[in-house]
């Protein structure tokens, strides 16, 4: 069942009912000011950091769903009142539509011959959210209506705002000046910032105290002021400050009223605050307000935003016979990659914004999916990440985006983390040719006195693996590897006994075959990079270590039909036929094959066959099988989940892409693309009632075959699934892969395909690539012609002339 449709021409997903299976959201902003907005205008805004600079309040896990806050509008019409986005008033509408586009959302509603259209967006280079509100009388009689706006201020620190009521109920402060409501809580004391909500029209009234506007025992659905059709002109003094305007509007038949509302954030220098003795300097706010005083200015900013996204999405596009593939690659996957770059895993409808900051592992992987769009910001992000790295090559698992410092509450010891930095830097250099980044002096632990060239960071990341190996010579797993719920360095308890540590010396010798597979894949890339920059000695050393690890994987990481997942703290196998449950895991099959393990003796293909046989479902590949049905204390968190959910045999979409890549590596394009279509959002739209989350972006997890709700997704938007699936489809399946000396053409496609076209911008040049498949093969380049000349091999050279180049490739 569908709840909308793709408008490919406008790059929009159009939602045709407000009652979607779960709130379907969009993100506004891509620089410093961000907003989440649902299809009924729920959500919130923040500046840089969803925890420390939360601007508007939102209550997660709320009842009713998605009525925990938003930027809401109400229309009062002769005693009747309703909301353009259906919520929060929830009055039946004669028409409803929500269009989620690239950095903007348009919500339309109509009732009793009054139509409304509200466009929400964050302009480029602007710390604020703009709402263009259009109200039209579509009837035959004059209408007199009152428009109410509403949002609720968060007291800056979202975590403290949610807990510290004994203090916060006494600190709320606002100021009203004309049509602008200023939120200045704590500005006098310790803050150097404030927020405002304004409209480009004289107002009839206002409210800034939540209880006065809503009523003590009313709710968003029936605010007391809206029921009365009149604001109370309340001024918040403590309690919960809000911002609401009311505007009386008279409309003749066919007449339209256009208004511009702005939610803005201002940061003054501390010395400015002290000089003003805590009184808000409104100069910056007034300049921001003046910028969008007219509808024409708003429309120009929307056009600028559209041009920005058109430019970003033009870097890579495909033209094929499959419309779902085209929209997935050309628009929605790349759009989601940019959102995950901006926010890592910090703020979605499943991540509250207070529990974590930017992930080291996460952000390095996210970079893979957007480096072709904004390489300069990728460079900046790499330096930010490397600056949080520890001196031993390990890393803080997360850092706060506002301070860019490691998060002490999380710490390090996730032993896969360091390798992702290597992969991110390799991807950046291949895309840009900027080897100079390796010489960039970069701190350890954000300590400038410990700064070393970035190349030193890569060496220590590489060495962190070989300096931390276990009894088999496989990498130690640490607190966890990529699978945070596989915690093998813990305690075991036999029946009738107290907790005992393992018989090993320190009780921390659990090994990860997945990290070993990552090391063979990423370590090989490190060796090639060192060779490319002329560090032959380091290249040889690295190459030898990778070959050594590959041998260990094939000796002690092979279970007979597939790769083991790990050895626990007692030296027992995980992901083995010997196990009662969890006999096979997906992660090591992908990375070991990508890293060349078993490539020469058929065991790579054997492992991938086992993946389809044991892990395959119609909705994607489950993470492990059989699911755990009881608790294994020695395995940690993974077996605490019910069967079929999250890491316990859920379809963890992130790692599905590694199998797609692995299938492409062994040349099986039919299977690689089959796996791609099982989880790509554009292909799940038809069963949105089962899937529940947005049909235009990936979710982290889909309930597996052992779950009671098989096929239901959770944790949409912020997931490494976005970047890795873009890598899988763009580089491994469609086969346009950046290399140090040019673009490699190496597809692994379904044999039924006749061909397709790719437009790829690379280092300033634009390549128009047509791939033809007359012999209906999956892999192999038979010939390549560039600008009318035959080119040997399969690598497009870097011309560096900024011109367009035509390429014809014949597979076979």
Question: Can you put this structure into words, describing what you see?
Answer:
Keywords: Glycosyltransferase, Transferase. The chain is an alpha+beta fold. The protein is 29% helix and 26% strand. It has a ten-stranded antiparallel beta sheet, with helices on one face. A hairpin with a 4-residue loop joins strand 4 (33-38) and strand 5 (43-47). Helix 13 (513-532) runs parallel beside helix 15 (587-594) and helix 15 runs parallel beside helix 17. The protein starts with a strand and ends with a strand. 55% of the residues are buried.
CATH class of the domain at 4-310: Mainly Beta
Task: List unreliable stretches of 5+ residues.
Answer: 491-505
Number of helices: 21
- Could you tell me the radius of gyration in angstroms? 28 Å
Task: Please name the CATH topology of the domain at 4-310.
Answer: Beta-galactosidase, Chain A, domain 5
- The total strand number stands at 43
Biggest sheet strand order reads 1-2-9-10-11-12-19-16-15-14
| Distance from first to last alpha carbon | 41 Å
Report the portion of residues in β strands. 25-35%
Largest sheet: 10 strands, antiparallel
Overall body shape:
globular
Arithmetic mean of pLDDT: 94
Sheet/helix structural class? alpha+beta
CATH architecture of the domain at 4-310: Distorted Sandwich
Domain Glycosyl hydrolase 94 catalytic: 308-735
Keywords: Glycosyltransferase, Transferase
Organism: Anaeromicropila herbilytica
GO molecular function, one term: carbohydrate binding
């Amino acid at each position: 069942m569908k709840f909308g449709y793709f408008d490919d021409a406008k790059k929009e997903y159009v939602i045709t009912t407000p009652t979607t299976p779960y709130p379907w959201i969009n993100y506004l902003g891509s620089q410093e000011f961000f907003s989440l907005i649902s299809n009924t205008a729920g959500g919130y805004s923040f500046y840089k950091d969803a925890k420390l600079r939360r601007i508007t309040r939102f209550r997660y896990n709320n009842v009713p769903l998605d009525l925990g806050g938003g930027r809401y509008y109400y229309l009062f019409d002769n005693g009747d009142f309703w909301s353009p986005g259906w919520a929060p008033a929830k009055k039946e509408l004669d028409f409803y539509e929500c269009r989620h586009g690239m950095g903007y959302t348009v919500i339309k509603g109509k009732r009793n011959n009054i139509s409304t259209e509200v466009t929400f967006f964050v302009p480029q280079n602007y710390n604020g959210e703009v709402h263009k509100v259009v109200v039209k009388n579509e009837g035959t009689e004059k209408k007199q209506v009152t428009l109410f706006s509403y949002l609720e201020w968060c007291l800056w620190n979202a975590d403290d705002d949610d807990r510290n009521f004994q203090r916060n109920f006494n600190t709320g402060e606002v100021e009203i000046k004309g049509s602008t409501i200023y939120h200045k809580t704590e500005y006098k004391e310790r803050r150097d910032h404030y927020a405002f909500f304004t409209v480009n029209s004289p107002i009839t009234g206002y409210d800034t105290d939540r209880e006065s506007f809503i009523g003590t025992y009313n709710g968003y659905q029936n605010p007391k002021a809206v029921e009365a059709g009149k604001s109370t002109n309340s001024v918040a003094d403590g309690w919960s400050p809000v911002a609401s305007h009311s505007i009386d509007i008279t409309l003749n038949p066919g007449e339209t009223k256009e208004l511009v509302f702005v939610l803005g954030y201002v940061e003054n220098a501390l010395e400015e605050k002290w000089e003003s003795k805590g009184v808000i300097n409104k100069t910056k706010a007034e300049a921001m307000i003046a910028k969008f005083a007219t509808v024409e200015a708003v429309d120009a900013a929307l056009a600028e935003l559209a041009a920005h996204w058109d430019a970003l999405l033009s870097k890579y596009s495909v033209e094929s016979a499959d419309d779902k593939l085209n929209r997935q690659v050309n628009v929605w996957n790349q759009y989601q990659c940019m959102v995950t770059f901006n926010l890592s895993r910090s703020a979605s409808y499943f991540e509250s914004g207070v529990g974590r900051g930017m992930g080291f592992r996460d952000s390095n992987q996210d970079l893979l999916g957007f480096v072709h769009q904004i390489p300069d910001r990728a460079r900046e992000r790499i330096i930010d990440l490397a600056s949080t790295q520890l001196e031993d090559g390990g890393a803080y698992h997360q850092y706060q985006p506002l301070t860019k410092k490691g998060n002490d509450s999380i710490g390090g010891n996730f032993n896969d983390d360091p390798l992702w930095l290597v992969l991110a830097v390799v991807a950046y250099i291949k895309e840009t040719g900027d080897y100079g980044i390796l010489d960039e002096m970069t701190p350890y632990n954000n300590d400038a006195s410990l700064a070393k060239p970035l190349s030193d960071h890569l060496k220590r990341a590489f060495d962190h693996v070989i300096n931390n190996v276990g009894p088999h010579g496989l990498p130690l797993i640490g607190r966890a590897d990529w699978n945070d719920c596989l915690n093998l360095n813990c305690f075991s308890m036999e029946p009738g006994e107290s907790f005992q540590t393992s018989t090993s010396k320190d009780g921390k010798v659990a090994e990860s075959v997945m990290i070993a597979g990552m090391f063979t894949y990423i370590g090989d890339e490190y060796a090639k990079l060192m060779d490319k920059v002329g560090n032959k000695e380091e290249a040889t050393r690295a190459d030898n270590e990778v070959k050594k690890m590959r041998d260990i994987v094939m000796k002690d990481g092979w279970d007979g039909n597939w790769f083991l997942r790990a050895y626990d703290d007692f030296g027992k196998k995980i992901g083995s036929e010997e196990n009662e449950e969890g006999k096979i895991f997906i992660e090591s099959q992908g990375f070991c094959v990508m890293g060349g393990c078993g490539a020469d003796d058929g065991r790579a293909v054997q492992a991938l066959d086992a993946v389809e046989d044991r892990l395959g479902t119609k909705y994607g590949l489950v993470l492990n099988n059989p699911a755990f049905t009881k608790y294994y204390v020695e395995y940690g968190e993974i077996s605490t989940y019910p069967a079929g959910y999250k890491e316990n045999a859920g379809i963890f979409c992130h790692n599905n892409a590694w199998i797609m890549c692995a299938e492409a590596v062994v040349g099986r394009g039919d299977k690689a693309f089959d796996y791609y279509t099982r989880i790509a959002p554009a292909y799940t739209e038809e069963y949105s009632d089962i899937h529940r989350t947005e049909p235009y972006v990936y979710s982290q997890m889909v309930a597996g075959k052992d779950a009671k709700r098989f096929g239901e997704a959770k944790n949409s938007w912020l997931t490494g699934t976005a970047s890795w699936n873009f890598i899988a489809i763009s580089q491994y399946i469609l086969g346009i892969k950046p290399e140090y000396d040019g673009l490699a053409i190496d597809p692994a496609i379904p044999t039924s395909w006749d061909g397709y076209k790719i437009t790829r911008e690379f280092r300033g040049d634009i390549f128009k690539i047509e791939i033809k498949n007359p012999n209906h093969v999956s892999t192999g380049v038979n010939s390549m012609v560039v600008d009318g000349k035959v080119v040997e091999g399969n690598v497009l050279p870097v011309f560096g002339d900024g011109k367009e180049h035509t390429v014809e490739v014949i597979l076979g």
